[in-house]
Each structure stands twice: as C-alpha cells, then as structure tokens.
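Quick start: load a record and inspect it. Here is ATP-dependent RNA helicase:
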Amino acid sequence: MAHLEAALPDGPVASSLSQGSRAPRIARQPLLLAVGSSDGSQLAAGLSGLHVRLPRCLTCGIAAVAGTATMHRRRERSSRDGQRRPDARGRREGREGREGARRGRYVEHRKPASMDWGGVKVTGPAAEWLQSQIEMAGGEFEPSPIQQEAMSRIYDGESCCLHAPTGTGKTLCFLLPLLQRFSEEAARTPVRGLRFLILVPTAALQLQTAALARALLGPGKAENVTLLRRDADNTREPSNIVVATPRQIRDLLDEPRTQPLWLRALGQLDWVVVDEADKLVNKWKLMQRREAIREGRVLPAVALLKEIELQTTKAGRRDEWQLVGATATLSRRTFRNMKYSAGIDLALIRVPGSVTPKVEQQVSGGQYGDGTTSWPAKLRHRLRVPVPFRFPKVMTVAAKTIYELEAERVLVVLATTGYRGRAPTSEYGRSVVLSQLRFRLEDMEHERRRIEVISISEAVEAAAELWSSEGSRQRVRGPSQSQVIVASAQEIRGIHLDFIDAVVLIGDPDSISDYLHAAGRTCRYQPGSPEPEEGIVVSIVPQMTATKIWKWSSLSGFKVVEVPLRRHIKTLEPAERLLTARQKQAAAELDEALQGFDEDDLSDWDVGEPTPPPSVWS
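Running the structure step on this input writes:
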C-alpha cells in the first residue's frame, strides 16, 4: 500500500492505491504529483496539460509518471528552440555522416542492392559485394561456366558435387546461393544453433572461406560465422555457420563435455559443404586403405558424414539437409565415398577445361572420354632437373628461375616427402627455404624492383582483409615490388591469391592431384578479368619425378617442356650466367686490378721445374 497526493489548483486530492485497484482519471490541468512509499522515498514531477492514466501496479505507475515528465520537458525544450529532435534513424544517419566526414569519405545512404547473378536473385550485402566487383572490373563481372551451371541448382536445394578446373570460383559458387537462402530463411523464422557447416582440409583455407562468408553476409550478420578452433570455448551452443576441419568436429564428438551438444547440433543441420572433397574423403592410397581396413580406421570426414546422417535420422530430418561437394580432381572413388557416406544421391555438375592436346603419347580421351581435361587452357608447363638434386644446387636453380620469370607475384610450392624420400621435409622445410630464397634473391640486382619473400600465412591474412566490399576495391596490382610466397603443397589446397603469375614447384609431388592443385594457383579468374589470365608452372624436380610428370602429361592431357639450366625459362634462348651483386663486384675489382698488367712480365719469372709429389700420393 502506498499514498499518492495530487496538488491541484482547487486543493489536494488524496487516493490510496493497491495493486488490484484501478487508476483514477486525472483532469487535464497543471498538477504536481508526489508519490511516497513506506521507506520514505518520494518522487515529484511537474506536469502541464497532460493526461496521465496510472496502471494497476504502483511501480509501473511511478515509472509512467517519470517517463511522461521527461518527455514533456523534452517537448517543451524543442518547442522553445523551434526545431524537433530527429528520430532514431535520423540520429544514426547523422552519426554515420559525421564519422564519415572525420574519416575523409562520403557516406551514401541507399537502399539495399538487389541483382540477378548466376540465376540467383542476390540481395543485401552480397549484392553490394558483387556490385563492388563489377565496378572494379569496369562493368564486366560475369559468372564463370561452373557458377552459371550450378548456382541456381544449389539455391533450389539440390545436393550435388562440383567438378571444375582450378581458379573457376567454386567457393563463391556454393557460398553465394547457400548464404542467400540462409539470410532469407533467417529473416522469416530466426533459428538458434548450427545450421550451416563448411568442412575444409587446412587452417589457411578455413580462414579464407570464413572471410568470404562474412563479406557476403555483411555487418550485423557476419558474427554468425564462426572459425572453429581447438583452443576456444566450444562448450556453448555453436553459431549458425561454422567453418571447420573434420578432425576438429570429431574431437568435439569424442569429448564427453561437448559430445551431447554437438550431436544435437549435427541433427539440426540444413546445409553441409565438403570443400576439396578428394582431400577429405579419398585421402589414402591403396596400401593405406588396406592397412586402415585391418585396423578399423576411417577418415574423419567419412565418419562425420555418417554421423550427420545418423543424427538427422534420429531428429526426423533424414531428407531435409543438403550436401554440396567441390573439387578440381574428382575421381569415381571420391564421388562414391561422399555419396554412400552421407546416404544422399548426389548429382554431378561438371565443367570441362582445355581440349586434350594431340600428341603421339596420348593414350586416353580424358577422364570422361570426351577429349577434354581439367586443366586451364592458358597454363604452360615447364620442367627443370638439377643434377645432382641437392639442396644448395636446388636453391640456386630456384632463385635463377624466379629471377628469369620476371613475374610480379610468384608462388613457391614445396612438395616434400618423408625422411627417406627425394625431398625430405627436414631438409626442404618452409622456414629453411624461405630464408634461403630471401638471402639469394635479395643479393640479386633486380632491374625493375625489389623482391620480397614472405610465407603463405602472411599472404592469406592479407588477402582475407580484402574480401569485404570496401577492401575488394583495393584488389588491384600494385607497382611497389615483386613478391615471392613460400608454401607447402598441403597449405595451398583451395587457396586463392590474387595475381599469381607463376608457380615454382620444388620437390617430389605425391600424385597428379597434388601437381594439379599446385599448378592451379595460377592461370585463374582475377579481379577485373572476364576470363582466366595466362600462367606458367615450373617444376624443379629429380630425374625420377621428371619421368613421372611426363607420364602424367600423357594421361591427363597437358604438354610439358623441359628447359635446360643454360636456357632461359621463358624464351628458351641461351641465357647468360646469372651473377649476384657480390659476384659482380668481385669481377669488377678483378678487372680493375688487371688493367695495368702485361703478360710479357711473366717471362721474367723463373718458375723452375715442378716439384714431384711424394711417393705416398702415387
């Protein structure tokens, strides 16, 4: 029970209010309300010309009186100033305009963009991202053949497997339609928990895929994308979109604290993507598969797809989730493993590459017997064989090759082997090769610019910042310096780096799949180009590996040219000996010392008979 007094011009009016009583109607005249409670606190408000209806609850009534008084004071202040305060939207736009002015840029307030691209109606931040690509390309940014063929089918909910050459935009092909569906369904019925799972083989590809997904979702929704890490707190409910490796998910399922949460999350999935499917579901060779069968081991991706099928069946959603796979090297075993592990009938969507060249050693019509390959049409293959294949000589040949390429951006891929192989990891490690190339290339006098040598992690982090709509406008060639990026063959799987002009492969690639994915980092669709640009791949390999590459060329349908060390790698003309800056300085000092020297002066020297060697030497 509390006491309420109202001071009116005719005199005070008292009323006792309880929680169940109705509030009296107060006339529209100046009054002063004073509310006192049992603890002695008091609230007073001066009101003029207002109609106040007190609710049943006394606490709500006090809040209503205070709120009404505050609004009244603001209205009187605005009327005195002759202007009205802007609403929330106006305040937000004004704040953005002031911040933009401070940053030196113009903030344009426009409605969300909408456009049709690849057979899918794209709206919101994804359309703005596409518009930025179109502006950067000068008005020409058309979908690639695989995007034109598959995007509408993925948007309609068809489970499929994409097979197309490297650099044709397979990641954007499945991300854009699936994220568009996610945004549309989230706008209608927001749902918590995991809905979209993207499986990738490496941490570098995990970072790049998450960056592109956040750029397509835009601010406000980008927080729905989680980059799964083992050192993070995974005991909470996962976000809507998770990018992870299969091993990370399997570890969470094996942990008792996180197992119930993630089993329930897998049962609620709507979309699952397996990127670089050949690396995830068909990684083992014949002997490894036989040993795994004897020991009862299964690949993490295969086990995870079976678990998703089981959990969705338990949740009554057996046929309600969609599976999409993507790779540039799709074999029949890879396709079968995905299909039967998930229990989903997959459709094959394939776009061919270049036409099989007519050579005498050609023994097949390609994988599908149609005379086409999975190689880009403008990719050139070169081969160099250092004899003997030792680390110092290989590094010298690699530095000479990079110098002769005169490319603005070169990717060095290390195809290492075990300790008994021809290119052991202990000898051809990334850090060792990076330091050697940095020392040798910095010692060479480049006529155009300085050569910078960095690691793949630095390049991927820098590229991830350029996926947003604002950063994509900076994805242009810079005239600052040449750049050499060093990476292992496992790290560059599925990675896209802008403007890679050449690839230098060092070591012993394990299979033709590894060779294709390494060579496919060049000759790709680039920002501002309607078709893939030209590229070259140079393999610096031992003699046995060179023979293996020759066999791959006849089976896979590409032409390889071996270039001797004394020939120029691009022009194939006889090349002069390449000297470092120190060697050039030593040669100049020697020439200067020999300028005043005459060979006739040697005749005055009495050398005498040579001393015979000791008998032990003979």
